[in-house]
Amino acid sequence: MLQDKNPSKTDLSQLGEFGLIESLTKDIIINNASTLKGIGDDAAVLNFANQNTLISTDLLIEGIHFDLAYFPLKHLGYKSAIVNFSDIYAMNGKPTQLIVGLAVSNRFPLEALQEIYDGIKLACNIYKVDLIGGDTTSSRSGLILAPTVVGKVTPGKEVYRSGAQPGDLIVVTGDLGAAYMGLLVLQRENETFKANPQHQPDLTPYAYVVERQLKPEARKDIPPLLKKLNIQPGAMIDISDGLSSEIMHITRQSGVGAIIYANKIPIDPQTVLTAEEFNISELTAALNGGEDYELLFTIKQKDYDKIKHRKEFAVIGHITEEKGNYLITPANEKLQLKAQGWNALKT
Amino acid sequence: MLQDKNPSKTDLSQLGEFGLIESLTKDIIINNASTLKGIGDDAAVLNFANQNTLISTDLLIEGIHFDLAYFPLKHLGYKSAIVNFSDIYAMNGKPTQLIVGLAVSNRFPLEALQEIYDGIKLACNIYKVDLIGGDTTSSRSGLILAPTVVGKVTPGKEVYRSGAQPGDLIVVTGDLGAAYMGLLVLQRENETFKANPQHQPDLTPYAYVVERQLKPEARKDIPPLLKKLNIQPGAMIDISDGLSSEIMHITRQSGVGAIIYANKIPIDPQTVLTAEEFNISELTAALNGGEDYELLFTIKQKDYDKIKHRKEFAVIGHITEEKGNYLITPANEKLQLKAQGWNALKT
Fold it and tell me: Is residue A195 in some structural domain?
């Protein structure tokens, strides 16, 4: 997939600042007219003319968000860009620039940094985002990726978390829970490998869930599709911490409640099979697993006909005037949703 | 100064995500019309109308850029904002928004995070910058501050590193080398304290150099002053890594050389005295110490009269057509400048 094993090792301390920057940034492509000046000065210079500017940051910290024992560096670079792009799509915008703070152990060779940058640049090329700057420094312990994404949106077309209204339908894109099951598979294989380094993992039966963990994609198709369908969502958020917690963000900021239906939540068959194998409920993975980077949004009931035949979307519930967030189980029980999402500060 | 010792300790893991964000962001003031939406959504929303947008990031990593043994958390928050603002002034712009990535050990109590945020918010209030978002997560080891600053500049008024021309004068603001001497004082006091915890340091004789290290300021006065004086610099950069390395950035990107005069470099008397005490040359501190956050820029000779009586500026040399960067010593020797600046990747 993205694997690129390179045996050569160049010591960062011999390279110097100029050499390092040159080496990491030499093949960067600028795709957006809004980028007037990219890498190479005290700041990048952008111009958004009649557009509003969006900005967001999401950190990836070794030992918290990833384990290098099973996370290839190029994938990590790719994912660090994707999770940031996702926040811009969640505003109904388009990501246009990325600036990357990176702290690495000085035991990392240049080639390791290049792999991370290769992943970042691949994501930027695919999503037509310009890599415009950053800060690369050393770290005493552990790898830290701190990208900040800039995007644009037509004024008035932004979608906040606060715009959900009673009666609105709750819609999700894609399927949920796979990234979490992929994480569990990778962690299990890593434990097996540590116990027996001869162990050759066969990840074929888990290809989809593992890819959702190691190489997630952001829903760049959704904002243009919503525009084409003439739908302006009421509220929107990306699903990075699990469906439960994201629904609670929307209802809290909108001053409303929500009811969702367990049997409406889209879950891939491989997620279900893997969850069975791990003896957990696939619903738990979908509600609390996180890292799916799908979009969750609300629409008016009158817009239902515009989406009902679209494979991208699933209607999973509706917004209520009464506060509180509930899940209706297949047995028709009504359970209160809890934000058991992956809370980085609890690890 | 900024010290704010608070004995109470609130466990982050008990607080939850909502509680933490609320606690850190409750008293944030928005000063800029360009901030349409700050903290609280997937991304902040900005509008710069007819201005160009500037963006930059500078990381501060525990054990590399600071040591918590002598760096109070509130100062650290303040400094993390200042070093980022400085990059925007170095473009001849004005910082307008800040977004802060923060990774802390979950052993940190809430009050420690609040101190960091108090420092960030103080800097934002003084510099009229809006704190518009961020990502706070845990870290396995060590504190990481990853702010990204956004600013604005009138199109055409940006000053790049690449605009220096032969014959231009080289100008610096303020004085150099003090922040580095402050660092040496703090490190020495810390060693003394470790050897003898009863030791009460008297930092009075070092007040200025220590303040330059612990509470630096960015030169927000310079872009408006240059405008008032009707000076458009050819090239400009902020002095974060030491004068030598910054001059080399300008000459390399401008395809020129430079000659600077040791006896023209502005150095505070306290820096000189402290350097003597540490038995190092104050010139070394000025050339290679870094963290002064003064501005270095070039102007046309015809503009000399506009600045010659201004206390903010010192002319330290000139740009040459012939490449190479040289220092003329007080003994009239011509030495080649080397970038021995503080290179984070070499630590």
Answer: no
- In this predicted structure, what is the pLDDT of residue A340? 63
Mind listing the pLDDT tens digit for each residue in A284-313? 999 999 999 999 999 999 999 999 999 999
Residues from chain A that touch B141, judged by Cβ atoms under 8 A, are 63, 140-142
Interface contact flag, A347 B106, Cβ < 8 Å: yes
Final residue of a structural domain among B153, B183, B202: B153
Domain boundary among B153, B180, B213: B153
- Name the residue facing B55 among A13, A20, A99 (closest C-beta): A99
A54: its two tokens: 């969006």
**Are B336 and B190 part of one and the same domain?**
yes
Q: Does B75 lie in the same domain as B199?
A: no
Q: Is the pLDDT of residue A154 over 90?
A: yes
The H or E element containing residue B299 is strand B295-299
| Contact status, residue A66 vs residue A179, Cβ threshold 8 Å | no
Q: Which residue among A91, A151, A346 places its CB closest to the CB of B13? A: A346
Task: Tell me how far apart the 2 most distant CA atoms of chain B are, in Å.
Answer: 65
Test B45 with A54 for CB contact under 8 angstroms: yes
Kindly calculate the radius of gyration of chain A based on its CA atoms and give it in whole angstroms.
21
Kindly state whether residues B149 and B210 are assigned to the same domain: no
Q: pLDDT of B195-230, one tens digit each?
A: 988 888 889 999 999 999 999 999 999 999 999 999
The 10 Å Cβ neighbour count of residue A210 is: 25
| C-alpha to C-alpha distance for A230 and A234, rounded to whole angstroms | 13
Sign of CA dihedral B279, B284, B288, B290: positive
Residues B240, B298 share a domain: yes
Question: Which residue is it, tokens 């609105």?
Answer: A168
ipTM of the complex: 0.90
Q: Do A61 and B140 touch (CB under 8 A)?
A: yes
In this predicted model, what pLDDT tens digit does every residue of A155-191 receive, in sequence order? 999 999 999 999 999 999 999 999 999 999 999 999 9
Range of the domain at B301: 169-346
User: Domain with A247 in it: what CATH number?
Assistant: 3.90.650.10
Same domain, B131 and B201: no
Higher pLDDT, B295 or B142: B295
In chain A, count H helices and then E strands.
10, 14
CA-based nearest distance B135→chain A, Å: 6
Tell me if A238 is assigned to some domain. Answer: yes
Q: Are both A256 and A329 inside the same structural domain?
A: yes
CATH assignment at residue B99:
3.30.1330.10
For B154, the token pair is 């009138």
Chain A residues touching residue B59 (CB < 8 angstroms)? 101, 103, 135, 137, 144, 146
My answer on whether A133 and A87 are in the same domain is yes
Q: Are residues A225 and A92 in the same domain?
A: no
CA of B291, closest CA in chain A: separation in Å?
14
Among residues A294, A313, A293, the alpha carbon closest in space to that of A304 is found at: A313
- pLDDT value at residue B347: 31
Q: Has residue A347 got a pLDDT over 60?
A: no
Q: Do A18 and B252 touch (CB under 8 A)?
A: yes
* B4 pLDDT more than 70: no
The partner residue sitting opposite B146, judged by closest CB among A55, A101, A252, is: A101
Split into its structural domains, chain B has a count of 2
The pLDDT score that the predictor gives to residue B262 is 97
The pLDDT tens digits for B271-296 are: 999 999 999 999 999 999 999 999 99
Q: Is residue B333 part of a domain?
A: yes
- Domain assignment present for B198: yes
